Amino acid sequence: MERRNFLKVLSATGAVIAINPSTIGQTLMAKDGALYKRYAKVQLVDGSGAPLKADALKTGENYVFNYPYAGTSCLLVNLPMPTAKDVELTDEFGNEYVWKGGVGSKGTIVAYSGICPHQLTHINKNDSFITFRNPGERFAGDIVCDGHTSVYDAERGCRVKEGKAPQPLAAIVLEVGSDNTLWAVGVLGKDKFHEFFGSFRRELKEQFGSKRKAKAKVAERAETVLLSDYTRDIVKL
Ligand code: FES
């Protein structure tokens, strides 16, 4: 087997391992594995604990789940349109990676970290300045951080279309089971978790009890709710 047929990925323990892409189905991968980090495979469930079904997601609705840490919120959207495939992206340091596209029967379901790489505006329980915009809204079809109006292309791996963001939102890697269940399995792209946990100690204590609890890795299940149920104030400028 040629070397390029294997991908180097970070295991949950941080060790670099090589795996054959054929063993991971439709998981979204980095071009050379450098920007993919695998975390626990976590099932998305609704507020009652029932498995979330991919085909039951409302189109254009903003959903939130926390992954890979208890205190890091992610945006889940069933887009109105199928996404592009195999989108080549670049992080703020020039590292290239490939976002494979949306999942689900129509290839429309995407998830991204809710932490903006510009100045760490993030989805939290008090407010959210980050939302997917539907037809009829300003920046329709995009995800916008209204911290300073960075516009991300939701159909193309959240590449930056406008604004000061130095790189795409990190993508949450999703899988859909044969029973239509939804799973998060890793993070693709340069995430901002380290900077986030270093910057919001007081908020994390207020919203999760302590920074330590906010940094706990999510295991097994992640409750997924409407953004409007998760946050008190959705801000769109
Ligand atoms: S923090 Fe998101 S655009 Fe500045």
From TrEMBL:
It holds the Pfam family Rieske. Residues 103-183 form the Rieske domain. Keywords: 2Fe-2S, Disulfide bond, Iron, Iron-sulfur, Metal-binding. Signal peptide: none annotated. Gene3D superfamilies: Rieske [2Fe-2S] iron-sulphur domain. The keyword Iron-sulfur applies. This is Rieske 2Fe-2S domain-containing protein.
